[in-house]
Amino acid sequence: MELGAAALPFSLPATDGRTYSLDDFADAKVLVVAFTCNHCPYAVAYEDRFIRLQNEYAARGVRLVAINPNDDRGYPEDSFEEMVKRARDRGFNFPYLRDESQAVARAYDAACTPDPFVFDGDRKLRYNGRIDDSWKNEAKVTRRELKDAIDAILGKSSLAGEQIPAMGCSIKWRH
User: Fold this and answer.
1) Number of structural domains in the chain
2) What domain range is 80 assigned to?
3) Using CA atoms, how far apart are residues 30 and 134, in angstroms rounded to an integer?
């Protein structure tokens, strides 16, 4: 997905029993759509950071939505039932959606888990890159690119520097 592209519509079931669409986030000043999953060590490492990010930025109009597109036939830990358990056990404070058909992940051109796409209030893509510079050890993080992007969008300023691609496990596509 090219920077400046419009957010693409979706309608997906969530672990909280609801179905969410892009329109459900219309009031968000910044929308983070993060493709993630249950089993990838990169995705698991970022769960607490996503929870804290939503806590820290919710009052400023930022909404995070996580989408799991992985094929659960080869990765049963990514089944909807396991997603429900994970969201409950980890205390996710954001919607966790299931992209069973993988159509949304394909439309967004998601590459890995986690892969965050950050949209401004007009739902134009402003950032698609890594979350920070130390997925394995949060104590060693020196650059917080996702937060910097959110801050820039909220401050209505341009994003500084290059967007380094997200790093994680490949999405488990159906064949």
Assistant:
1) 1
2) 11-170
3) 24
